[in-house]
Amino acid sequence: MQSDNLPLQPKIKDSLFSHVKTDLPAGLVVFLIALPLCLGISLASGAPLFSGIIAGIVGGIVVGFLSGSKVNVSGPAASVALVIYMAIESLGSFQIVLSAVIIAGVFQIILGFLRAGTIAYFFPSSMIKGILASIGLILIINQIPHAFGYSGKALFGGMEGGFSANIFREIAGIVNYISIGATVITFLSLLIIFAWDQPALKRYTFFKFVPSALIAVLASIGINQLFISYFPELALSGGRLVQLPAAGSLGEFFSFFTFPDFSQITNPQLWTVALSVAFIASLESLLSTEAGDKLDPYKRKSSTNRELKAQGIGNIVSGMIGGLPVTAVIVRTSANVSSGGRTPLSTITHGTVMLICVMAIPHLLNLIPLASLSAVLFVVGYKLTSVSLFRRMWKAGKRQFVPFFVTVVAVMLTDLITGIVIGGAVSVFMILRDNYRTPFFVDREAHYEGEHIELVLAQEVTFLNKASIMLTLDHVAPNSTVRIDGSQSVHIDDDVLEIIEDFKATAAYKNIKMETIGLDRFYAQRQLS
Description:
Elements: H1 20-45, H2 49-66, E1 74-75, H3 78-91, H4 94-113, H5 125-142, H6 144-147, H7 167-173, H8 180-196, H9 199-202, H10 205-209, H11 212-230, H12 250-254, H13 268-295, H14 304-320, E2 327-328, H15 330-338, H16 345-360, H17 362-365, H18 370-384, H19 387-395, H20 398-413, H21 416-437, E3 440-444, E4 452-457, E5 460-461, H22 466-474, E6 481-485, E7 491-492, H23 494-507, E8 513-517, H24 520-528
Parallel strand pairs: 4-6, 5-7, 6-8
Antiparallel strand pairs: 1-2, 3-4
């Protein structure tokens, strides 16, 4: 029964159509943000541009209906783009990669049924930030050719091929292929994005809700049309523009979808790609779900296991019809919430509007210069690996910075999986090192003969702490007083108890007074066992 002294809590409306007035406009805003990102991520993936659109549609409609989250928005993500890029090169075709996307979706569904939804929280945040930072760096480097109008292959493999010793020579070689028109569009697009996102302008509703990426893309279309009319030598055409297939009928539109090739199903490399996609997509989706729950004004809690299943089904559907991998994306989720999205109707709306636009106005989309999408991806990459991120990690101390930096370098020099293994190993090493070095807190009143020392043991004191405890006790000066406090400990290893016993037995020879607190229960447990 409700207490008379407590105010009645408003009932949260969770039905799909309970917030239509805010969800529909929010879905439109998310679409405006997602469209250039879908095209840009397709570009970064080396996949057909239409595949990013498919992933955006599937993430909006399919995952939107199945996800337990009320505010998550799913679609293609930059974090997976470079895995797909290198997979296309190593496996030989995008159709074969699609089969890996489907297998990754199956893995995600299995993880959901195994209730592995909390798996992301067991990875050190420093390692996760290192993975994203390395992806951001590689994303930026790989967009340099398109930014300057060079239509050759990307410069930097990273996810599979590792660091190329000739990368600087390759970058210098682009000078011979620079397009002035593409370069101008790239720099003007970057200028528009940075100017549009200034806090002074964000105070106004128009600048707050109209995304900078969309304005940059629209401006690039206008600039290129200006080049065509007045400066034809600067105009971009052909492979320097978006090239989406334009359908003359509904039947022709559905013929544009690509279907998977399972001919290399026994290839171990294909399964490695599937595991990579499943890992990154699940990690980003779970982190986005956690962030979305925090942003949700109603503070509703989403089932992470259901989210994994929904993302898995989304990847199976996307892979079946030629789409990139789907993940929940933090940027789109936060934009959805800030725009008024309160139920899955907003993310479904964004996917539906994208489907309608790609069917109705593909000719307009094909006017977009790839250089402007490169500018958008430069900004996306920089947000993943900004200077301020490196500065924050450095200020956080060696325990955070070392695993972070090692992960960044390892991913860039080797590949994603190897980089994660190396980064994880360094993270575990740092944890064990800290556990070894700080099993107790030492309070000294002096640093000479006759000092008073208090050792407050940690909750977990293991055999790894033997050496540090032994050295501390061995260096206690004669005529001192030592108090060992184990009252806050949950577990003390037998080896450590033996060290304390040995010290107690020899303390009298140095005229050391010793007192223990809370250790009797551990000695009693030891005798019983």
